[in-house]
Amino acid sequence: MNRLVLSLLVENNPGVLNRVAGLFSRRGYNIDSLSVGKTNIEGMSRITVVALGDEQILTQIEKQLGKLVEVVEIQQLDPDNSVYRELVLIKVDADESQRSQIVSIVDIFRARIIDVAPTSLIIEVTGNTRKVDQLLTMLNGFNVTEIVRTGLSGMRRGLSHVDI
Question: What is the CATH number of the domain that holds 101?
Answer without folding.
Answer: 3.30.70.1150
